[in-house]
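Q: Predict the bound structure with magnesium ion.
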Amino acid sequence: TRKKFTAAFEGINLHFRQVFATLFGGGIGEMRLSDPDNPGESGIDIVAQPPGKRLQSVALLSGGEKSLTVMALLMATFRYKPSPFCILDEVDSQLDESNTVRMRSLLKEMAPETQFIVITHSKTTMEVAETLYGVTMGEAGVSRLVSVRMSDPAAGAEEQDRERE
Amino acid sequence: TRKKFTAAFEGINLHFRQVFATLFGGGIGEMRLSDPDNPGESGIDIVAQPPGKRLQSVALLSGGEKSLTVMALLMATFRYKPSPFCILDEVDSQLDESNTVRMRSLLKEMAPETQFIVITHSKTTMEVAETLYGVTMGEAGVSRLVSVRMSDPAAGAEEQDRERE
Amino acid sequence: LRLKQIDLCGFKSFCDRERLRFSGTGIAAVVGPNGCGKSNICDAVNWVLGEQSAKSLRGARMHDVIFNGSRNRAPAGLATVTLILHDSGLASGSAGEDNGMPRPVRLPASRAPGEIAVTRKLFSSGQSKYMLNGKVVRLRDVQDLFLGSGLGPNHYAIIEQGRIGRLLSARALDRRAFVEEAA
Amino acid sequence: LRLKQIDLCGFKSFCDRERLRFSGTGIAAVVGPNGCGKSNICDAVNWVLGEQSAKSLRGARMHDVIFNGSRNRAPAGLATVTLILHDSGLASGSAGEDNGMPRPVRLPASRAPGEIAVTRKLFSSGQSKYMLNGKVVRLRDVQDLFLGSGLGPNHYAIIEQGRIGRLLSARALDRRAFVEEAA
Ligand SMILES: Nc1ncnc2c1ncn2[C@@H]1O[C@H](COP(=O)(O)OP(=O)(O)OP(=O)(O)O)[C@@H](O)[C@H]1O
Ligand SMILES: Nc1ncnc2c1ncn2[C@@H]1O[C@H](COP(=O)(O)OP(=O)(O)OP(=O)(O)O)[C@@H](O)[C@H]1O
Ligand SMILES: [Mg+2]
Ligand SMILES: [Mg+2]
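A: Predicted complex:
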């Protein structure tokens, strides 16, 4: 319904502006209606202007800037309406070290509301996980799981045994 | 011309099989004609089967496996016919640490023939560069270059590669 | 509503049954070398939520998600993925935390109070099944369960490898659909 | 044939003239934080080699490659990129190393023996120029120079960010075109 859409649009946008500014240290990130006179059917454009740069289409942003912009919008959506869980597959692969740190701080902030499953090669990102699932292929072509609870590494082996049941 | 095409196809394929086996520690990587009875017009399929796994379409490979497969084919093409230069923009972003080491060894092998320009965030990859171009944006929105000639990084990196094996 | 468990058996590189357990909140990292099966877990969740396009799961046909053998193993005859969620509202009989899930429509009784188990099976014969708490249902029932949660057909809560740019390169109307899903 | 230098001026985030020098072989790494301009260098090389599609350079119109201003700078009126290569064969008068470049067709005299300078300019008026060794030529002449080297229109020797999967997801006939380019 149109009222619900407008509420969601403005609710998410409020958070998007804040999260974008946090991740980029300033700048403007928001959604805009492609056709403001027709909110009932209008599409949505994304505006993303990092601090100190002039406004251009999001397509011209760098790989890392695009990743951060999308993460800001996704987390803003969760702030408006949490999901039960969220899976992120290598979303940090294009980020430099300092932006990886910013992204993981953002995830930590959102973590009390949602189960995040973060697939990553980055040690920096792994550091904020309470649980690590190691996927191995000791036997060629066959995946196995090993789980380690980070807050209590000693429980790792116990975890493993229970997993196999 | 058809003779030239067949020579290139077989020449590149010879190298592709070798480089693939080196990068993957075995397995089968090669090009095949989609229509072997019609080499004059046939398209080309890529076969990539990591060691111990059964043959499937390349689409099912992992992100890292796809990156390595393409790099193997590209380097094989350069072995058949070198290019003056080659630009690689973050081709290592999906590789784990040991595959990043394998890829940089491959680049080092090809380096005497070609000028490689490797855009990367990986310290491991940077270690095999003789020259580093740092791109900075001290003034917002304005890119500047700083060049650093590395004093024989090759020796140090070779040491590290041998240690990692 | 909280995620509690993911079971995979015969799905892609998961030949034998493997299980991931979750507390329901917080950050769980999935790590390992290239090609070991991490993204296959993401595919498994998309699949059990009702993904219809084999191409979205990197396959040519849906049959491609069944473990197809390895050096020492024969192909599997069946792929099964089960997602277990917990609804504290259902368990206690009061209104549960509203994190975007509509009250489950005609949910079959579960083994444990508040538990919602979603299962999808695909046999190598091509026969396919969806189940909620052990009872066979239609794909539509599974999709209705997750409508509006970001885990429905427009699953913005899952970002696949290499697809983070999707929201930016999408058409303006597709982005509208994403906000409508959250509305 | 060896790459010696890349000059950028007014191209994307390179407001002032910046220069990269190369020995012609070996590995040069380009590093820096997100958004600082690394991929813009890759775009610049694609552009000076004759890229016709603004979309391939992440723009909506070709005008998007001209430096469009920043907090403290006005937009530029002109984008210029120059690629300088060295052909030892040209310099010494004997057959040069064959690394895939056809003998340059009707190459204008260069400032230094064996030097090949390729320049592309785009004015904010929309006027556009290609030059070889300072002499205005057509796009076609630049493309002919690089035919078969992997740097022509089918430039397999350049892998853009996020596009490494292109060769694998391409149609079979497009892959044929890549081998034909190398043939
Ligand atoms: N039906 C199947 N049966 C057996 N193995 C399969 C099947 N489908 C895919 N695989 C294998 O799974 C592997 C890919 O796994 P996945 O994409 O999960 O890797 P990953 O851990 O995400 O790696 P990366 O870090 O490179 O992204 C491939 O090697 C592929 O051959
Ligand atoms: N015409 C232009 N004028 C000024 N700035 C521009 C222009 N076109 C693009 N830019 C800016 O260049 C930046 C992107 O640069 P680039 O893609 O080279 O980054 P990068 O160093 O590759 O980063 P990453 O590591 O994230 O990939 C964007 O912030 C964009 O705003
Ligand atoms: Mg993966
Ligand atoms: Mg980049």
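A: Chain B has a mean pLDDT of 92.
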